[in-house]
Design goal:
Chain lengths: 271, 287
């Protein structure tokens, strides 16, 4: 079950998106997410939808594995859009029964929000799909460096993130292992009420915490043995450098923004 | 009727994905009652997967597991009850301890079985005596003890359920020679006192040669060999091919034989080797 969630996973590849600098991707994904909210009518929404679809196509991420990860989210999207149909009562009436009024305005907003959320998910998940966790944290570290003014060490934050990401699979495996071991001793994890089930988690959570602390100490010692002392004076194996393709990406996104603004001005707003 | 029997047992990891792996490939295995049985195999051979089927922790994709001739996966109840009758102790069991005291941790299994206070008390004391944990440790926190002690307490936690079969997955992994010796002696003692069947998964051919009565070799999800220590370790070429080996001392006597010493075949423990060498040298002197 846990293994089926593919959001946040990295798919190695050699596409244009994979090759972009992590900083470029971080900034541009944030920008495009804002662009999606800037869309006021179906024309600009269509433009950004086409843009998202092209991005997915360019990334060469197998569509099937992408959709598989979204299965759970689609239910939420559907519910949100359905609610919109009943809440928005503008426009011409399409269907009326007792207190339920369905209007064109409601249907439009429902479709609009549905498409908007799907675009949001696709674009934001492309970031982790095409960037390895190490590069992602490297990029974040670099981008957050100005926070030094507030005495926040971006290097420490990035290192913590890297370690956390690194240990997710390890922890999942460990939970599996401890669960099997306690089940072998007759632990009943599946039946009973809420309180009983919560109590049944104790034999799993206690060893998990104890082992996590043990592992954290081991890791800290190992890092200190290799003279780790934070980011000060540290050089990098991969020096991040913006290439021509990064500038191209910035230009494309600027053009996208211009397109959205123009379409918003020329056509009537729906939302 | 065999004690444990598997019929056409198949298990898949990552079923219906591109990463599907056949961990168990149509296994037909019969294990009779009594003795110490060793399951050996290379890492990833499927031996751990196999033993997790014996107490219904894993459900077969195909085929069945019979205990005393009855399908253990017939329904949820039989599967659950089988866990108490076939006790399984995982690798590195010391990382599964969780209670405040040693006593409470050993008592976890018996409590789940629904034993009365009195029964629990006697089950815990008996199990602790099998693994050589004194009563003075009962009120201590298991987290304050040494690695070897923790492991013995964890094993006692499984023994306390008084299972008909005890399965131990790599009980000596990561221990120093002395700790290993303690565990092996403990297993022999347990078998001697209770007369119950013990199934042991191991990487160490020397341990297997020393204490096992029967050896089962698993390779690539199939049973490659099954027989006595003598029968299995005489297939040294096949074992090497599977990434396994014969006990170290067998390797040495084999080489001595190649060099011209007339030593008998089938030497698997240091004691046997010492006797054979003594005989050989005595013969030379006589000549």
């Amino acid at each position: 079950m846990i293994k089926e969630i593919t959001i946040g996973q990295y798919f190695p590849g050699k596409s244009f998106l994979h090759k972009l600098d992590a900083r470029t991707k971080l900034i541009l994904v944030l920008a495009v997410l804002i662009f999606i909210f800037l869309c006021r009518n179906f024309y600009s929404l269509a433009l950004i939808t086409v843009f998202s679809v092209v991005c997915v196509a360019v990334s060469r991420i197998p569509l099937r594995s992408m959709l598989k990860g979204f299965r759970v989210l689609f239910v939420i999207i559907l519910l949100t859009s359905l609610l919109q149909i009943f809440y928005n009562n503008e426009g011409d009436a399409l269907f009326e029964w007792k207190k339920i009024h369905i209007t064109t305005g409601g249907v439009y907003t429902a479709i609009f929000i549905c498409v908007r959320i799907i675009c949001l998910i696709f674009v934001s998940s492309l970031l982790t799909y095409t960037t390895s966790p190490t590069l992602l944290t490297d990029g974040l570290e670099r981008l957050l460096k100005p926070l030094k003014v507030f005495h926040i060490e971006s290097h420490t934050l990035a290192m913590m993130m890297t370690i956390a990401l690194r240990f997710i699979p390890t922890l999942i495996e460990e939970v599996d292992h401890i669960m099997s071991a306690q089940k072998a001793r007759g632990a009943d994890l599946e039946t009973g009420g809420l309180l009983k089930r919560a109590k049944a988690m104790v034999p799993i959570l206690v060893p998990l915490f104890v082992n996590s602390f043990r592992r954290a100490y081991d890791l800290a010692y190992a890092m200190e043995c290799r003279c780790y002392r934070g980011g000060a004076g540290r050089t990098r194996m991969r020096v991040m450098k913006l290439a021509v393709r990064d500038y191209i990406a910035f230009v494309i996104c600027a053009a996208l923004l211009a397109g959205i603004i123009l379409l918003n001005i020329f056509f009537e707003a729906v939302i | 009727m065999s004690l444990i029997e598997t019929k056409d047992l198949v298990y898949l990891y990552g079923a219906r994905t591109p990463f599907e792996v056949k961990a168990l490939d149509h296994i037909d295995l019969r294990l009779e009652e009594g003795g110490i049985k060793a399951v050996i195999g290379h890492t990833g051979s499927g031996k751990s997967t196999l033993i997790q089927h014996f107490n219904a922790l894993l459900k077969p994709a195909q085929g069945s597991v019979l205990f005393h001739g009855e399908n253990i996966n017939a329904n949820k109840q039989t599967a659950y009850r089988t866990r108490f009758r076939i006790g399984l102790c995982f690798q590195y069991p010391e990382y599964q301890l969780f209670e405040d005291t040693v006593f409470a941790d050993i008592a976890f299994g018996p409590k789940n079985m629904g034993m009365s206070e009195q029964e629990i008390d006697s089950a815990v004391r008996t199990a602790a005596s099998y693994v050589g944990v004194g009563e003075e440790l009962f009120d201590r926190s298991p987290f304050d003890l040494s690695g070897g002690q923790k492991r013995r307490i964890a094993i006692a936690g499984v023994m306390a359920m008084n299972p008909e079969v005890l399965i131990l997955d790599e009980p000596t992994a990561g221990l120093d020679p002395q700790g290993r010796e303690t565990i092996l002696k403990m297993i022999l003692n347990y078998r001697g006192v209770t007369g119950k069947t013990v199934i042991l998964v191991s990487h160490s051919m020397d341990d297997v040669a020393r204490i096992a009565d029967e050896v089962i070799v698993v390779n690539q999800g199939k049973i490659a060999l099954q027989g006595t220590v003598h029968e299995v370790f005489s297939h040294s070429a096949e074992l090497t091919q599977m990434g396994l080996s014969v006990p170290e001392v067998t390797g040495i006597t084999d080489r001595l034989r190649d060099m011209g010493c007339e030593l008998p075949v089938g030497i698997f423990t240091v004691g046997q080797a010492a006797d054979a060498l003594a005989d050989y040298l005595a013969g030379r002197i006589r000549k």
